Automatic annotation (TrEMBL):
Transmembrane segments: none annotated. Keywords: Iron, Metal-binding, Oxidoreductase. It comes from Capsicum annuum (Capsicum pepper). Pfam families: 2OG-FeII_Oxy. This is 1-aminocyclopropane-1-carboxylate oxidase -like protein 7.
Amino acid sequence: MDCMEGLGIISHYYPACPQPELIIGINKHSDGDFITVLLQDHIGGLQVLHHNQWIDVPPKPGSLVLISNDKYISVEHRVLANKVGPRISVACFFSTGASPSSKLYGPIAELLSEDKKGSPVH
Ligand SMILES: O=C(O)CCC(=O)C(=O)O
Ligand SMILES: [Fe+2]
């Protein structure tokens, strides 16, 4: 649970864009934290890269999006620009804290498949 020691919050405001095909909201990236919890409004635009294809993450009222994959490497994602209206999102980044730590962190053993148990953590 040390991975929850640091919490950073970024609020995004994406203005409506008359020509969204010419620009991107946020370019392709993966988050460097342990897990990101994202609140997005109803506009949409968030996409994740899955098997080399961009997949929409449709907004669902009252829901939060968790950005990670099951091995603690953040999935690549981006946000499209849109002309419908401004889009607002709030991203909470959970990490080990602001200062670099000498602690070595690894996946929770119970969550690993048999063939991954006992392998060194990098
Ligand atoms: O606005 C979004 O939906 C995503 C924001 C994001 O990817 C980030 O802050 O790292
Ligand atoms: Fe992100």
